[in-house]
Amino acid sequence: MLSKVLSLGLKGIDGYKVDVETDVSNGLPHFEVVGLADTAIKEAKERVRSAIKNSALEYPTKRITINLAPADVKKEGALYDLAMAVSILSCNKESKIKNEKNFIFLGELSFDGSVRKVKGVLPLLISARQLGYRNFIIPYDNQSEARFISDINVYPVKNLIETIKFLSGEILINPITHCIFTEVVKENKIDGLDFANVKGQSVAKRALEIAAAGGHNLIMIGPPGSGKSMLAKCFPTILPDLTFEEALEVTKIHSIAGELDLKDGIIYKRPFRSPHHTASTISLTGGGLYSKPGEISLADNGVLFLDEFPEYDRHTIETLRQPLEDGQITIARANSTITYPANFTLIASMNPCPCGNYGSKDRECRCTAGQISKYLSKLSGPIMDRIDIHIEVDNVTYEQLKSDDKEESSKSIKERVNKARNIQNIRFSKDINFCNAKMNVEQIKKYCQLDQQGDDLLKNAFEKLKLSARAHDRILRVARTIADLDGSENISPVHLAEAISYRNLDRKYWN
Ligand SMILES: Nc1ncnc2c1ncn2[C@@H]1O[C@H](COP(=O)(O)OP(=O)(O)O)[C@@H](O)[C@H]1O
Ligand SMILES: [Mg+2]
Questions:
Q1: CATH 3.30.230.10 fits 2-167, yes or no
Q2: What residues pair up with 3 in beta bridges, in sequence order?
Q3: 3-state class of 95 per DSSP?
Q4: From the CA of 392, which ligand is nearest?
Q5: If you measure from the C-alpha of residue 109 to the centroid of ligand 2, how many angstroms do you get, rounded to a whole number?
Q6: Neighbours of ion ligand 2 (CB under 5 A)
Q7: What is the average pLDDT across 307-331?
Q8: How far apart are CA 413 and CA 58, in angstroms?
Q9: d(CA 122, CA 128)
């Protein structure tokens, strides 16, 4: 007897159809899985057999062969268990299972027959919907991930016996009710430190506001204790709200990495990732044995905060070059490559030298010229060139620290940021990017036109600061954001001058 049911596989963040074909024939009892399966799938034999037996269903004592097609793509994980069990059971002539061909099955089985949650349900469902599939049976514990996808019927199941009864028409299961993103995400709770707690530092606050509004990379250089880490911790509280499309992408990645908070089902806050400087390259970029997205992908559409930037391994820092430029990372594996999105905003902080006082107005630096240049050279020119905004953060004065002046709250800064981001959402509504920082050459030409005065200003800066073509483009992107914050359609020389002022530092320290 032969039977076939459908399931899905995941490549990168996209799903594809997998046929689970089962052949049950006479012969010595034997169970084999073919079709480039990994060990987790090979071990499915034990789980499927026990689950069927412990559900008091009939397990054929015959020769069982399961093929996972297409056979030339490596398949990973335990999500085919449920499909395999249904496929084996429907091979039985006396089986009452009728409409198994109408569904796509996802789910891991435990020995007692209960269906366990699996990783990556959201991206799998989105891809399957694009491929034209409409009906799905998924683990009960994954249902919150599925509720934001419209136009599909998703039936959550708790165990194998329930699934079989549903397929034989003995019981009914209600499909998951569809939810609308904006209704669920009514009032976004802001977590993080409020900017109202940071005294002074108006330049740094302004720069962070621009970075949040346009998604620009930013580096803070300053002596220890000047408040760099504190400023970065405040940053999440002024990030613009996620759009639904962005939220889906973020959720897809977290779903694959198994880092999704199942309560909400969708991520509605921009991620803020701050891996420690001892983190390995693979944990940052992703890949490894089970091809998981790394920190830079988990920070997609959000922030990657690298505190004490030069302390990271030099090789690790250099691997950030491709994602900083392309917004994605491609990882080579034994027989294929995987691409994960990595559209993050980099926020970095560093001391200017080992003792921390180089360039400071009030404190003396004790480092030798050699020590300073060795420290700074850990950040290469190409990396610095990819950071749009460079700022110096100096210590606040005693008067500032003790002052009773009320500082602006994160809420009120965020309002301006949201306004500027809404302008961008409209600007890029037909494009694939979401913010100014990701504009390509064509878009820069279209949206960043300068008047004669602005053009002269940029030419002057380009020659004087010996800027690269990349820095030139990045200045224009930042200037576009500054103009958006100002509610201005055109980039004026004032906007441009501010954008240029954020590029002075690499000359000061990296000359
Ligand atoms: N502008 C400021 N206003 C209020 N407190 C500050 C300010 N700058 C620094 N501090 C205090 O100093 C502490 C150390 O700052 P931190 O951000 O860790 O410095 P850095 O990372 O630059 O070494 C902060 O936790 C905060 O208590
Ligand atoms: Mg710090």
A1: yes
A2: 22
A3: coil
A4: 1
A5: 46
A6: 229
A7: 91
A8: 64
A9: 10
Nearest protein CA to atom 9 of ligand 1, as residue? 227
Question: What spacing in Å lies between the alpha carbon of 288 and ligand 2's midpoint?
Answer: 30
Q: How far is the CA of 222 from the centre of ligand 2 (A)?
A: 9
Ligand 1 atom closest to the Cα of residue 232 is 17
Could you read off the pLDDT of 148-161 as tens digits, one per residue?
Answer: 888 899 999 999 99
Query: 410-427 and 469-485 helices cross at what angle (nearest 10)?
Result: 110
| Residue type for position 339 | T
Burial of 337 (0-12, 13-18, 19+ CB in 10 A): exposed
CA of 235 to the centre of ligand 1 (A): 14
Q: Which of 206, 230, 398 to mutate to test the pocket of ligand 1 (most atoms within 8 A of CB)?
A: 230
> Is the CATH number of domain 195-509 3.40.1580.10?
no
Tell me the per-residue pLDDT of 350-378, one tens digit each, with 9 for 90 and over.
Answer: 998 888 888 777 788 888 988 888 888 88
Domain boundaries in the chain? Answer: 2-167, 195-509
Q: At residue 352, what are phi and psi to the nearest 5 degrees? A: -75, -15
In a 3-state reduction of DSSP, which class is residue 435?
coil
- Point out which residues pair with 221 in neighbouring strands: 350, 392
